[in-house]
Amino acid sequence: MIGRIRSLVAEFAGENVDVAKLGDDGDLYRAGMTSHASVQLMLGLEEAFDIEFPEALLTPDTFSSIAAIARALDGLGVGVAS
Amino acid sequence: MSETPSLLRRLIDAGLFIDTGAPGLYGRSGAFEEVIDRIDAAFVRAAGDDVTEVVRFPPGMNRRVFETSGYLKSFPQLAGTVHAFCGAHSDHMDLLEHLAAGEDWMGKQEPTEVVLTPAACYPLYPVVAARGPLAETGGLFDLQSYCFRHEPSDDPARMQMFRMHEMVRLGDQDQVLAFRAQWLERGQALVTSLELPFSLDLANDPFFGRGGKLMAAGQRAQQLKFELLVPIHSEEHPTACFSFNYHQDHFGLTWDIKTAAGEVAHTACVGIGLERVAIALFNQHGLSSSAWPVGVRKALWG
Predict the structure, then answer these.
(1) Per residue in B102-148, pLDDT tens?
(2) What's the domain count of chain A?
(3) B221/A43 CB distance under 8 A
(4) B49 φ, ψ to 5°?
(5) ipTM for the complex?
(6) Helix, strand or coil for residue B211?
(7) Scanning every residue of chain A, which has its alpha carbon at the shortest distance from the alpha carbon of B73?
(8) CATH number belonging to domain B7-80+118-301
(9) For tag attachment on chain B, is the N or C end more exposed, with fewer CB atoms within 10 Å?
(10) d(CA B123, CA B113)
(11) Do B211 and A60 lie within an 8 Å CB cutoff?
């Protein structure tokens, strides 16, 4: 799942963010992801994993790193196999 | 016992507002406008010795500038675009027939190059960018404009067309944050002098949709927006009369505005809702400004 998240981050987090240089715990906002890009990433994740983030998860923390996104998806029942 | 008339009704009955039949769109009396002028002047006086460049734009802005600004990413629901008839003679006949029949007559209306200004500072940024890098002291501008937001309401403090006076600071992060901190103090001092109850609170803009929830949470987490709130129609939901906004490098990146050192400029603005403060005054101190407390009159009229 991490690999899939990583490719979605590369696609949506904006051209400022060099995903290849970023560890799973690397802060995406600090790496240059704008708030508008975070919305695109959120929508991209929802479409790719066919889920809808509940309102309580619509916070910057949820999308702050690849690992944080993986934890949120895990909590929503998106399995590793997907 | 009869119900107390709404504030809107009282403003209209007192002749301060003129009903146009469209919610949030009112005429203003001379007495109301005099108060607006005094609040406007008090806001400028609050800037003290600041050397500002005064710029005025009409209440419509260049559509291309509006499109580039990013407003539609965040607030598509609030934007107002200007359309105009672009048909031929036969289309005109068609329009008149539809109009007479009470049907949709807008088929040949097409977007113009004009969008209604959503906030007084929006037209400024590309103008500053075109001048080249900022001076070492940054930039400080004074803007005032009628603004439009499509949110029809019976709350007189939530109009569709209203005036916003803004001070806009451009520079490095330290410069713009110092400006905002200074205006947080100035705003509170001004409202205190007007003897209005208020609170200061962290706030977020009304971003659209589910993505907007994420935007709003991010804006709050980073403490980008504060509002000075005055209870007008309710204590529980006080009305924002000032906002103090730190845009980070959003407009600097959008418009390629550079500091003297060649870095991307940061920006901040403080805005006062002139009608909102006037309405708060009429609500708090009575519908006749000549009967307002001595201190309030002195703060406004000197």
Answers:
(1) 999 998 899 999 999 999 999 999 999 999 999 999 999 999 999 99
(2) 1
(3) no
(4) -90, 5
(5) 0.90
(6) helix
(7) A36
(8) 3.30.930.10
(9) N
(10) 14
(11) no
